[in-house]
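Morning!

This is the sequence you dropped in the shared folder:
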Amino acid sequence: MAHDEVLAQTEFFADASRDELLKVLEGATERVLVRGDILFREGDEPDALYVVLAGRVAVAIANPIDNRETMVGLMTPGDLFGEMGMLDQGVRSANGRALEPSTVLAIPYAGVLAMFNTNPSLLWGVTRLLAGRLRETNEALADSVFLDVTGRTAKRLLELAAGRDSFQLPVTQEELAGMVGASRERVNKAIASFIRLGWIDQHDRRYTIKMRDRLELRSR
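The structure's back. Tokens below.
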């Protein structure tokens, strides 16, 4: 898929014309990453936003004491991220790291700002994107208050399954723990309980959901 078509499918650029998108893409570059490559670090001065073309990128906040991460975003093909610094002129608020071989499109802020200055009505796309981010944050906050570790683990597994009954976990156990917001030991204990109850099967990183209704009930 052409780069302008990828951008047109994001909320951020949905209202832009093809000519406007092509103008924005004049300064864009592809970055090819291997697993573990750091795209940016918390505190870096930002100058570009990114769209995932292939692979998966984690956006995570590291604990300064033990360096354990809390994953605040799992970016998959088509997802746009890294726009916050353009909107508030602040530094990066999290780390961006490739979870597997990935390709991202880096789009300099300068061209995007020029587009918005020329056509301010396009900022409605930004508003919709930020509203979606706020909804996700509210949901994550509610999960942390109303769901225990076992419930949050069930919910994250269902999200990663994306409707499939059999799937390969796209993250490590440590990364899954970061998504749940708990230690790896507690998350592994929750998964072991699901296996013992017959709700799921696990072979290495391959999971099979056998009793989806029970898992869904536990995630509420």
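Headline: The chain has nine helices and eleven strands.

More detail when I'm at my desk.
O.
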